[in-house]
């Protein structure tokens, strides 16, 4: 069994980790919807909304503030950027209302967040100069509660 001892996160990365909590909450909501036989259309609509209001900004900030601090040929950077693109492509395809897509997205997003938290962020903490880390310390996490307050269909609640 892998050791899942909490990782001491540099303050600069804490807001990104907080965003990841809401990404995992999205995964949970998708799975709740699937388990409760909620229509694919309702789930896909929420995924598109959440991506537009939250994840797209999060991805952009990670790419600009974090990934760009690693060499372009860094294998973990390439994996993270590739997974971002796969997630963006899945979200773009949500308009098709294909019933397989929400589950695929939930699985990929969870795997991606776990990778960033357990591997990529540790690598960044070790690789980034302290002045680069300190420069992003003031970044604020997204407010996903406000995002959900604006969404009228809480399909994940019974």
Summarize the structure.
The protein has one domain (11-139). Helix content is 69%, strand content 0%. The chain has six helices and no strands.
Keywords:
158 residues, mainly alpha
Poorly predicted residue ranges: none
> How many separate structural domains?
1
Task: Output mean pLDDT.
Answer: 92
Separate helix tally: 6
The shape is globular
- Report helical residue fraction: 55-70%
State the oligomer: single chain
Quote the distance from N terminus to C terminus.
34 Å
What amount of the residues lies in strands? under 5%
Structural write-up:
The chain is mainly alpha-helical. The chain has one domain. 69% of the residues lie in helices and 0% in strands. The protein has six helices and no strands. Helix 1 packs antiparallel against helix 2 (40-66), helix 1 runs antiparallel to helix 4 (101-127) and helix 3 (75-92) packs antiparallel against helix 4 (101-127). The longest helix has 27 residues, at 40-66. The chain is globular and about 45 Å long. The chain starts with 10 loop residues before the first helix and ends in a 9-residue tail after the last helix. The model has no long low-confidence stretch (mean pLDDT 92).
Topology:
Elements: H1 11-35, H2 40-66, H3 75-92, H4 101-127, H5 130-135, H6 144-149
Helix pairs in contact: 1-2, 1-4, 2-3, 3-4
